[in-house]
Amino acid sequence: MFKTVYMLHSEDLPNELPAFERFYLRYHAPEVISHDGPFIVRFIAWRPLPVIPEALAYGYYNERVTEIWFRSVEELKRPPGVVFRAQPGTMKSFTFQAPWANKPVDWEKWQTPRVALHVTTPAPDNFLGGKYTTDEKTYIRWYTVTKYPRGVSLAEGEDWFLNVHAKEVLQQPGLMKYFSSRTIEIPGRGPEKWVRLTELWYEDFHSWKKSVIDSPPKYTKPAWAKYDKYPFLEPYVDFTSTFLMERPDHDYLKEAPPYP
Q1: Which of 9, 155, 242, 244 is deepest in the core (most CB within 10 A)?
Q2: In total, how many domains does the chain have?
Q3: What is the pLDDT of residues 89-127, one digit of tens each?
Q4: Residues facing residue 7 across a β-bridge
């Protein structure tokens, strides 16, 4: 199974949010379902949590995180005509009609800045299972997306992440769960520039701040890093993140109206 992930950010969230939420539920989600509906297992989304000031330095995305789950890549290689679907590379053919616009939304403009990627799920690299049940502790999920800087090979970056960095992250005092997935290529759905989707779970922002800011482990800086500060990657360029609750706030397969 794999999921397509979108992280969206707004530079004017208080003013854009009401119209954006109506647009996504009323127009965009039905279009996505009409595009791949029979093959979608889950279509869920989260409103990112408001964060403490220290978290803003880690490429914080504030608008919405959406996951669309599919059973397999092979199912999406079906012959044309099995179900309505735009041809590969024509995602812009969606109308993207929005309540605040008198014409279709500019896809590129509306989606900037955004993060888009595909990963297998459940995450294959499970570094730390849950220490507690949800009845024993609350959780916030630090949802991070990374790639290695230009000029760093995938093999070199992955060697540092898996064999050095992940082991050191496990020493964070408040870390409760830690897992990661490598991105995958999906034919006809765009190349991947991101490398990993990783989640680190904490009880609350006090625990996150203690683990990341106040009392972090001693990390080994990779030889290729330009930054001395954890996670040694450039915010928004090589490292983006947001914070989510345990459960999504939207299930579009249940909530979205019929395709307009």
Answers
A1: 242
A2: 1
A3: 333 444 444 444 444 555 555 544 789 999 999 999 999
A4: 65, 115
